[in-house]
Specification:
The chain is mostly helical. It has nine helices and two strands; from the N terminus they run ββααααααααα. A two-stranded antiparallel ribbon has the order 1-2. Strand 1 (10-11) and strand 2 (14-15) form a beta hairpin. It is globular. The N and C termini lie far apart (60 Å).
C-alpha cells in the first residue's frame, strides 16, 4: 500500500509543512474528544490513548485524501475498527473499568464519568459502539450504520437492546436513586 506521505517532503499536491500543520491542528482540536470516544468504546481508560494514537497514525498516512471530506468521521471509523482488531486479538482482556485510578487521570474525579463507564461496560462491544456513536458522537442512525458497516435496522435494534440494558442497570439505578433520597 502506498502512503500519501512520501520521504521527498511532497504529498500529492501539498507540501509536507502544510500537511503537518493541518494535521497538527486537527489533533489539537479533536484529540481529547477522540481519546474520550476511545475510552467509552473500549471501557478501558488506560488503553484509550493508545487506541486513539493508533487511529491517528493511520489517519496521518492518508491525511491528504481525507482532510477535505469529514476527517473526524474517518478517524472515528478507524478507531472503531482498531478496537475490533484489538478485541479479537486479545479476548482475555476485561471490558470493565479498573478498580483503581491512576494519579495522572484527573477526569476520574467526576463520579458521573465512572458511573457511565461502568454502565457501558455491561454492554456488548457492538452495543457500546452504537451507543457511543449515536449519543456521544451525535451521529444519525444512517451515519452510525455506515461507520460500523451494518444496516440501519441493525443500529435501531442494537440501540433498543442497549437502552433496555442501561435502563435496568443496577449501576445507574443505584447512583441516581441516591440522589433522590
Amino acid at each position: 500500500m502506498e502512503d500519501d506521505i512520501e520521504s521527498s517532503g511532497r504529498t500529492r499536491g501539498f507540501n509536507r509543512e502544510e500537511t503537518d500543520a493541518d494535521f497538527t491542528a486537527f489533533v489539537a482540536a479533536n484529540g481529547g474528544r477522540l481519546i474520550h470516544i476511545a475510552e467509552l468504546i473500549s471501557g478501558e481508560p488506560h488503553r484509550a490513548a493508545d487506541l486513539a494514537q493508533a487511529a491517528l497514525e493511520k489517519a496521518y498516512r492518508r491525511w491528504n485524501r481525507i482532510r477535505s471530506d469529514d476527517p473526524m468521521a474517518y478517524v472515528r471509523k478507524i478507531l472503531v475498527n482498531q478496537h475490533k482488531t484489538w478485541w479479537s486479538r486479545d479476548r482475555e482482556r476485561p471490558g470493565t473499568v479498573p478498580e483503581h485510578v491512576t494519579a495522572h487521570d484527573f477526569a476520574h474525579e467526576h463520579s458521573q464519568r465512572t458511573v457511565v463507564l461502568g454502565a457501558l461496560a455491561t454492554l456488548t462491544k457492538r452495543e457500546r459502539h452504537v451507543v457511543v456513536l449515536r449519543y456521544y458522537a451525535d451521529l444519525s442512525e444512517a451515519q452510525t450504520a455506515a461507520e460500523l458497516g451494518i444496516a440501519p435496522g441493525t443500529v435501531k435494534s442494537t440501540m433498543h437492546r442497549a437502552l433496555m440494558k442501561l435502563r435496568g442497570s443496577e449501576i445507574l439505578t443505584l447512583k441516581y436513586s441516591d440522589r433522590e433520597s
